[in-house]
Amino acid sequence: MYQADDSRFPLIVVMMQGHFTLKEAQAYLQQWNRWLAREKPMAVLNLIQDEQPPQENAEAAKYYAQWLKANKSRLRQHLKGIAQVMHSEAYSIFESKFPALIGRLYGCSGKLFLQQSEAEAWLMQKLLT
Q1: CATH number, domain 2-128, options 3.30.1180, 2.30.30, 2.10.260, 3.30.750
Q2: Which of 12, 43, 88, 119 is 20 to 30 A from residue 37's alpha carbon, by CA?
Q3: What is the mean pLDDT of the chain?
Q4: What is the pTM of this model?
């Protein structure tokens, strides 16, 4: 499940819990298409509600991967950063891997945080550069 709030665009806040179904992934990526169509710099703050990483839905993951590949140039052009706020248990597992993963998948900077305020400050700085 996810809920995206773009009322503070160019900062987009996404609350996520559990895994995406294929239908949810399709709806979420339609929102991404709308954000990218604005052709403006943007940054995404993911607020992960799960204490442990959810199991991946293979169908949704495949669809998401295809979308990322098809939209790589638009993402590189407009997406300035992705910050993710996680619970401490998951944070320690992913902290060192997250920046490289985001760079490879989205073509932008990525960083994990434990506090939302720190993540927002980092993203606002990314939007200014």
Answers
A1: 3.30.750
A2: 119
A3: 93
A4: 0.93
